Amino acid sequence: MLDASPAARQPKLSVKLSASLDAARAVAAGYVVLHHVALTRGWANGPGLALRFGDEAVMVFFLLSGFVIFANERTRATRPAGYYLRRLRRIYPALVAALLVSKLIAVDNGTFFSTFSYKDLLGTLASLQDIASLKPGVIVDPYLQNFSLWSLSYEVGFYLAFPLVLRFWLRFPSWADHGIGVACCLAYILFVLVPNHWSLVTSYFLLWWCGAMAANAYLKGARDARSMTTPLYWLLCLALLAAAAVFFVGYRGLGYYPFLMLRHFAVALVILVVLFGPIGSRIASVLVIFARPAAAVASISYGLYVLHVPLVVDWNRANGRVGLLAAVVVLAAAAYLVDRGLNRVLPRAPKN
Fold it and tell me: What are the contacts of 257-263 at 24+ separation with CB within 8 A?
């Protein structure tokens, strides 16, 4: 059996860091909502250009997910049964609720029969969804065009891989860091040569793993990015491969493959280097004063993320200022029920 005692003796996350993580989740969720509303209503021009970077907010979620999952599960995920039940309980109830809400909105809009697809429904339930209009190799689009669900297929892939990777890393940390970097870079090369969903998800695992290694460095007392040079080195290699893909495949637009992946990888690298250091520490010190409201929004951030497209973007009743305001109120209430309400009534997952 693997010895988890060294990890168990590591310090917990500080109040300051917990507040900053909550704030990051709250801001990222709010930004994604504003991003989609701005794009669909033509607000993303002029000053609204600042709302065009929703994909980058999703990269923040990937990094945060790796950080938080590693910090909370590093001593428990080696017993995968309980870990997988906890992840299943966390991600699927809200996903199913989002699918139901998407159906209700499509029925109310009168578009259900023209947009419904059994393939998309089953593919989304199986976490195989992505956005075919932005990249090649996609298996299915998200159910009923709830495009915010694309990232959940990646998250599920990361969750499935973590216990296996963690066992290897606990025994051979240096070999594991290099092995993960090589595997993710090779996966992206394979994706460029033969576009497929599995290779792309594998390549993005490096972003999630960098978040996990930032948590590992923090828990060991490190406070800047120099303490995790190996994962960052491989993330830089992945970004350079994405740049090479743009050169060889050709530029097709800021938000399309292959430049889209370069954006994702490069932004994740910059976020880690800049925020895991003195600048991030100063920002965290400021965010402590917003700890309570940030925690409140963060506690429903997943619900906001999976429900906002059907409710405030697709819903015909959300047109106009009054309709949009009403839809935002419905979104907040629905997110609370999905994130907080379901959590109280569903059976608890095992802690170990």
Answer: 257/134, 257/135, 257/136, 258/192, 260/55, 260/134, 260/135, 261/135, 261/188, 261/203, 263/55, 263/56
